[in-house]
Amino acid sequence: MSTDLTAGPQEEKKQGLQLMADDWSADKRVFRGVTWGKAMMWVFILGDAFIFACFILGYLAVRETTTEAWPNTAEVFTLHVGGKPIPLLLIIVMTFLLDSSSGTMALAINAAHRRERKKCAALLLATVLLGLTFVALQATEWTNLIREGLRPWHNDWGAPQFGSSFFLLTGFHGVHVTVGLLFMANIARKVARGDFDTGRRGFFTGRRGRYESVEIMGLYWHFVDLVWVFIFALFYLW
Amino acid sequence: MVDVRAGAGGFHPEDFEEEEVPHPRSWWTKYVFSQDAKVVALQYAGTAVFVGLIALVLSWLMRLQLAFPGAFAFIDADHYYQFITMHGMMMVVYVLTAIFLGGFGNYLIPLMIGARDMAFPFINMLSYWTYLLAVLVLLSGFFLPGGPTGAGWTLYPPQALLAGTPGSSYGIVVMFVSLVIFIAGFTMGGLNYVVTVLQLRAPGMTMMRLPMTVWGIFIATIMALLAFPGLLVASLMMLCDRLLGASFFMPAIVQDGAPLANAGGSPILYQHLFWFFGHPEVYIVALPAFGIVADLLSTHARKNLFGYRLMVWATIAIGVLSFMVWGHHMFISGMNPIFGFFFATSTLLIAIPTAIKVYNWIFTLWRGDIRLNPPMLYSLGFIVTFVVGGLTGLFLGNVVVDVPLNSTLFVVAHFHMVMGVAPILVIFGAISHWFPLMSGRMLHDGLAKLHFWITFLGTYFIFFTMHYLGVLGVPRRYYDLGQTAFIPPSVAALNIAITVAALIVGAAQFVLIYNFIRSWRHGEAAKPNPWGATTLEWQTPEMPPPHDNWGKQAPTVYRWAYDYSVPGADRDFIPQNQPEQGARA
User: Fold this and answer.
1) Which CATH number goes with the domain that contains A79?
2) Do B8 and A113 touch (CB under 8 A)?
3) What are B191-209's pLDDT values in tens digits?
């Protein structure tokens, strides 16, 4: 048997698992095209996904064990427009806004790839504004429900765990959105000022600024949006 | 005109200069707010040792009560439970996790993989200061009205939140807040360790050339990042229950004849969340110890590690399996017996990769040129202790054996052997092994051996005999055994003996501290690479290594970490960064 084991045609045939095995047995980097910051964000997202999974599973478990009936979410989250009840209206608007902000974020990343400073800054600003509107609407929703008597320990519609799960789940997600907005506003400011074109050093880290920050920010933002979809499906719709 | 195609492909590592090390500009940024992983490591380890000494004193106080019930007026039942709780939580989270990952992880990962520092030194520094904040918040419990929580280290609801449990007003809040801060701080460090191992390795350093120390810390860190979420969520829900009057974990309860406001919560949910963290936590502590001990045994037996690849895969297998076994802590919680069967099976499966590791350590010693210096002694002590702890784990992993032994001193003895004494012996071994690297001086040999023998024999006596007490049925967590009919009078005598041993072992730790401080200033100056080790951390241009570890030229790796006693080589070890040409005489 005289098979040529050197590279060449066989190199092209490699796919899937073989390529993965090659990456993991290489030196220096496992993820060859991935910068340190991006790798770090992916690992963080993995851990954060576990946190949200624990939250959602905890909520589902408590929903099963509680002794009282679960409130009808379609009724609780109803807005009255012109006297007509429209279930889940506010949540649908919020979801639409947050998902739209994922779209503008993706466009901002594209602009960052092309090093289009002004466009990138404008799109980031649009994302920040959409996100801010989301947080503002969430604050409105909390205020409305608290006025209607929703408390972590009691509500008029059914199991008290409904209130505590609601505040904890949406609150923890809201904190994620808010923290993301703070970072994103800072990045938008840096883009607008041209920090990433000149490689200006960061105040705390002393590292050179670069457009990659926009993409890493985007990873986080898309993740937060994705989590909202699960909260929407498993808490509001169910 | 922007070249769209060139830019639109995304960002690639080649486009950036990533390996920048921020050099300190003042005394403060060099020694206090340092971004150097080695300084962060010493800060982490120093703080952890400080917490460890507090936990040690707490264990003395508990032992005094058990041996001489009622003889010390200031140890009342409430205090006793507070000592138990704080001793457990401090040792497991704030000492062992912090020292292995924050301490040894920070010090060794960049050096052993040939990097100049962690991927994100600033976040790494922040990790330590957040950890310190968590420690301060935890310790503040001692000074609050009602003192720290006395709910037992597992902090089970509803009892942890009910009036009557010591510290249920402030202590329990402080405990959970501290845990949340700890998790945030650890996450910052943990992300760094994982990314550094994955992306910052030296040329030639493949994953399968990493020393086992790095593998152990790497897998343990991934596990921690995935397991701590369980504890974080449990902590936040408990805080909601305690502070907001929610009922995540609180069922309807009648206390002192009056029903409480809570209803409908699930205490079992807390146990699931807690042990989803709690069991991986055992291996978060154990895997770094496994890795370090493999390197110590190989270096000081002058022999290559037996079955390196199998060791790596066993480490990974333990990591994966440990996420599927948490239910074995809940056999008596009223869980469905079918789950009990599942968790017993998965628990016993872990014995396979663990046994592979134990055999490989022993085969590494087989016909080796064993040098009975302190690192080797501690490592041998670890194997002996760990085997006892591991075998009693097999008893407790079986439902029918666990049910009668549960909540007896047998359990206490088991987990102290397996995740208390065994990893701590490795910490001592690691300190004596890497002390020359950290300080440039040798630890005093005689004092280190004295410390080893007292610690090893003392702890072995304490916890081996404690198994016997457990089989007799002596319950754990009891403040006073009183006149219990089934407990023979000899138990009291054995309790006194254990307490005497505990006091001696505890006092012996000050021999190590004295040795450490004395040798740091006046120890014999160490030669470069004093143990003749192959791994990269000993090949630095200076010892202790400078801030960027390698000076001008970062190393290139040509071989695995275990080329000891290679036939035909001119020395009995070949460093990882030595090219093929120079290896043979």
Assistant:
1) 1.20.120.80
2) yes
3) 999 999 999 999 999 999 9
